[in-house]
UniProtKB/TrEMBL annotation:
The keyword Nucleotide-binding does not apply. Pfam families: Aldo_ket_red. It comes from Paecilomyces lecythidis. InterPro entries: AKR, AKR2D, Aldo/ket_reductase_CS, NAD(P)_OxRdtase_dom_sf, NADP_OxRdtase_dom. This is D-xylose reductase [NAD(P)H]. GO terms for molecular function: oxidoreductase activity. The keyword Nucleotide-binding does not apply. Signal peptide: none annotated. Pathway: Carbohydrate metabolism; D-xylose degradation. It comes from the Eukaryota.
Amino acid sequence: MPTPATIKLNSGYEMPRVGFGLWKVGNDTCADQVYNAIKAGYRLFDGACDYGNEVEAGQGVARAIKEGIVKREELFIVSKLWNTFHEADKVEPIARKQLADWGVDYFDIYYIHFPVALKYVDPAIRYPPGWGSKIEFSNATIQETWKAMESLVDKKLAHSIGISNFSSQSIMDLLRYARIRPAVLQIEHHPYLVQPRLVEYAQKEGIRVTAYSSFGPLSFAEFNMENADNCPRLFDTPTVQQIAAKHGKSAAQVLLRWSTQQDIAVIPKSDKAHRLAENLDVLSWDLEEADLKAITALDRNLRFNDPLNYGMYVPIFY
């Protein structure tokens, strides 16, 4: 059965199930890619301070709005609070800077990017601040940060707030004191990292799940990670290839449908028109139950987006 194009959030807003991810989209092409994606039908754009391309993404949005292709209220713009801005008095100023970079008045959802608080870095000195050459932790608690996130909703700077890269334990803690519950949990999710208990827990708590890096090691090939370099591409596995051939779909479509059929949103990206169209077409057809189980059986509990894999001792997933 066709899957609805949007997901109802616990905040009352509707979020597209398929969006366009802005991680690793170059500054030289970002504005055009966002503009072309809007023309292709994308309405959700998943950005972050750390991606370093929010100004350019906003330029693409502004161009599409100016040409009458879309209205601001038809878009779902996502951004994230970086680790160096977790102190209560740093959250609103950086959110306002990011809004100004995008050229919009509010975010549709604003996430805590990682459950890690690092020492503050003044944006005038380094922006985006990244992890830095030396890891220096801050004493800001998630409770302090979340209270400041809630104030963004109160001030209408964000319609919804959410969390990214959180474990079940971290979510349990947050829910004890949250006045406004997180609307979405964004996590690395692909057939090599299925995380069924985390997904199940979030969904049972009414927290929607968005997958990033849906194509697994493909997203990390450039970082020379041993576990990514020595891992077969999901596109090339016999399981995915056979299922794709059976349904007359691409391997990418099969992987995205595997997620969306589990009520998980996805944020792929491409700079090719035919891929943009293919990636949107992952709601109108179904994989068979046997297909879903076969793809899930590829699970290796293999995480790529882990600070440890980048040489930083921040063992948040252990």
